[in-house]
Design a protein that fits this description.
This protein has one domain: 2-Layer Sandwich (YaeB-like fold). The chain is 33% helix and 27% strand. The chain has three helices and six strands. The protein has helices at 13-22, 26-34, 78-88, and strands spanning 10-11, 38-39, 43-44, 50-55, 59-64, 69-75. Strands 1, 2, 3, 4, 5 and 6 form a six-stranded mixed β-sheet that branches. The protein is globular and about 35 Å long.
């Protein structure tokens, strides 16, 4: 598993809107960054902006590794959580 992006320094406005609107708490965000069930490699969008997704038990957190900011947050779906736990040989 990849190590989480160290030293996240803040949130974009979009990420804050998602945290508030989707009710994802700080402990859940930290858990996704510190103990991801899966982390994806850095990818570039159509505008050349880098991002890396960390999937935790309860939240998916997208970080821009260049700016070290959280750019988006979503709750992890039950289906995704169960699949990843099964792949890792863990139980929820």
């Amino acid at each position: 598993m990849r190590e989480p992006v160290a030293g996240v320094v803040g949130f974009t406005r979009h990420a804050l809107d998602r945290v508030i609107g989707r009710g994802v708490g700080p402990a859940v965000l930290l858990d996704a960054l510190r103990n991801p069930l899966k982390s994806q490699p850095v990818k570039l969008d159509d505008l050349g902006r880098p991002s890396q997704r960390f999937v935790g038990r309860w939240a998916e957190v997208v970080v821009n590794p260049s700016t070290r900011t959280i750019v988006s947050v979503n709750p992890t779906s039950t289906k995704t959580r169960m699949r990843l736990l099964r792949e890792l040989g863990l139980e929820d």
